[in-house]
Amino acid sequence: MSSKRFKIVLLCLAFIAFLSPASLSSAQEPQFRRLSVEEYRDKMKGGWIGQIVGVSWGAPTEFRYRDKTIPAVMVPKWKPEMINHAFGQDDLYVEMTFLRTLELYGLDCSIRQAGIDFANTKYQLWCANNSGRTNLRAGIAPPDSGHPQFNNCPNDIDYQIESDFSGLISPGMPQSVIALGDKFGRLMNYSDGVYAGMFMGGMYAEAFFTQDVQQIIAAGLACIPPDCQYAEMVRDVVTWHKENPMNWTSCWEKCLEKYRKNPEYQKCSNGGIDCKINGAYVLIGLLYGNGDVEKTTVISMRCGQDSDCNPSSAAGVLCTTIGFSKLPSQYNTGLDETQAFSHTSYNFPALLDVCEKLARQVVVAQGGRMETFNGVEYFVIPVKKPQPPKLELSWEPAPISNSRFTDEEMALIDSPVIALNNIQKGVDRLFPGWKIYQCGPDMNPGLKEWHGKNPVLMTHPLNRTTPCLLSRRVDLPAGQKSTLKLCVGFHDDFDWKLVVRVNGSVQYETLVGKGSPYDKPWNDISIDLSQFAGQTIDLTLENVPDDWAYEAAYWSEIKIVTEDDKSEK
Fold this sequence. Notes:
Layout: H1 3-19, H2 21-28, E1 32-36, H3 37-58, H4 90-105, H5 111-119, H6 127-137, H7 158-162, H8 164-168, H9 174-184, H10 192-207, H11 213-221, H12 229-243, H13 248-259, H14 275-288, H15 293-302, H16 309-322, H17 348-365, E2 369-373, E3 376-382, H18 407-410, H19 420-430, E4 435-437, E5 446-450, E6 453-459, E7 468-475, E8 482-490, E9 495-502, E10 505-513, E11 523-528, E12 536-544, E13 553-562
Antiparallel strand pairs: 1-3, 2-3, 4-7, 5-6, 6-13, 7-12, 8-11, 8-13, 9-10, 9-12
Helix pairs in contact: 3-15, 3-16, 4-5, 4-17, 5-6, 9-10, 10-11, 10-16, 12-13, 12-14, 13-14, 14-15, 14-16, 15-16
């Protein structure tokens, strides 16, 4: 056969092979990444150790430096025995609550089950965590437990510092991180508060496959809406680092000016606990730490504010890229593996085991598989572009879901604040269409006889900082004047604050009680709603505590009157 004919035959065979079903099938198959179970476990273990090191190291400085950097001489010196100081840290044991829910009820467990489990926790909480859990115990089911209408700190750092688990059980699978954030982040946060955790989880998920910090940050950014303020902060920090890669304080100063001092970025902010500024400090540690555990942890710590949680997140991501076995010895030795983390059933080996167990489930759920080659077991992980959630804004929130726990679900909560469903029956009787939330048990609220009127509704705030809410969605007619009319009273010689909100924004507030403009036994109040004509609005009446003394509110009338026909709603 001539050389020319031989080449033609080879080309024909190659073309036939290209068109074969097997070849076409292979070309259409999704791309996969492989990660041995051994390597996964080593990197996942490194991620947990990074969190432990960061939070233990930074704990003595927590919130002692607000809007100023920590002087180098004030940074604690790391000692290997400090690694055992983390068993009582909330940003570790709270996320283990979520792991336990997944372990018991599976990846497809409902958000309501997640809420019940979180409501039943006994540990001390603060900020958004505390508000969310209080709402859950009061019968407000998720996702409303984290909604700004019921939670006054939706953009706090809470889910950001508890989302590490989502990436550690989702190596290379950002869509799993997003789904877990929608399930657990909404228990206590909203908008940027949830996106912050999705971003952190996305960084962890990518950290199993690269040590390139820019690639890791880009992977986290792909998990959240590009037009949210948190994403804007991430892009800013990356840009400011490129402009001055040698001086982290220059980047820190720009963050302070924009994300602390500019009111546009303080909306729905709880000050220094806001997720954007603290998230920026995580990134500063990662970008300026240059892959060094000590530098990354110390720089993130020295940025201040939540200066134990931030280095915990930064070191957690970095140590995931490195893996436990390759960490410097001062960080991967001395851990007491027999001690359980506070309020959990997990010691360190059990924690690693449950993460591996769940990671196997996540791989399969995301369309991957397990394979064994030459005696080595691998995760075969599909490469999928993440689909971020739609943009929500805490200062312009979407309508609430009107999600409430049923009587059967409330029976599963060990310490419900009060049997709200019984009070709701009274609300239904007097004010049909209205829902009650966050009513505290003090003074035995419910239907009463008061100052010549019977029955009236008596409510009471949940605690010193959490008002009782009456809420309703209303369709206001176009072209007509609508007025909210209230008749309210107070208890004896005391007072309470009335706040009226429309779509979460305050429209009216006043004290009701002795020495206030409304100091009669019964007081008529009218609030003009005409500016919302033709709109569907979420209307909320708040019984806000004043001095925490007999803060009961009495309601004998709640109605909306339109000017043309005086019809009541």
